[in-house]
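Checklist before submission:
- one chain only
- standard amino acids only
- sequence pasted in full

Submission:
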Amino acid sequence: MRRDHNIPRGELHRLNHRSTVLRGNFLGDPTDRELYVWTPPGWTKSERLPLLVDLKGYWSTGLAHANWQIFSENVPERLDRLMSEGMARVIVAFPDCFTRVYGNQYINSVGTGRYADYLCDEIVPFVEEAFHCGGEGRRGLFGKSSGGYGAAWHGLCRADFWSAISVNSADMGFEAVYPAALLTDCEQLAMHGYSIERYIRHVEAQPKIADKDIICITNVAQSAFYDPDLTQFRAMRLPLDPYTGELIPDRWRNWMAHDPVVMLDERLQEIRKLKAIWMDCGSRDQYRLYFGMRRFHLKLEAAGVEHVYEEFDDTHSDVDYRMDKFLPFLASRLSE
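Returned file contents:
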């Protein structure tokens, strides 16, 4: 809901994009997708602006950030206000990367599709050509939760392409997050013979989904990104024995190889290329993601990599108000 109906409004453009890199993806997800792009008030194609890309969290898609909300602004409304308050002008893209495992980590995986390539090789060039924006040194991305994971991964692996990232309440520090959570998930799976397929098909047949099932599916689905098995239902398999709770070394090793905290040790020189790194996390995050965020921050600090890290007094939920801090930061750095 808009705070002030008198400030100038930008325009939300609703486009369609047909992907090549997602063709033949294992999950059979669509290759034709909507794409929203916000341009600031008074924008014309003669104004070459930086580009920001929004990576939405799990169980959602970038398109949802344009939905009307009762107690807070949606992202286009927030951008209108921030621009009126002096934020540097940028263009923002909201891609749809939703999958049949109910979300995305924004990486390439044989289990889900080439979503890193989808963003870098298709979506960004498509937006840059249509809106005469972005380009080398003027591209940034931001995301929370799984979107924060995506921002961290792209900063570690594609700093040749991106120049600024905001990593918000991100999936990292896997050993502090997933083993305990997966043991709880096994209690859900036990009612279905420890079969992921039987469990998910049962949940999908219900008239509504319970919070505990949202969490369980989110955790189990990470295997389709980090350790996919194309012989299994939607490429998902557990990294532990569901009966004894013991981690399977080879499976868990594949998960840990995708943990940004671990990746940073080998990709430190890559992330140094970025112009700007913002990181934040709620100090009461119910998934304890602050452990991984702290580890990542301390490693960057020890290596002398310039970045901002803030912990704030809140949980993982409903923290879009943090955009008031990191969006102007990204816009300013990309405009330099």
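Reviewer check: The radius of gyration is 20 Å.
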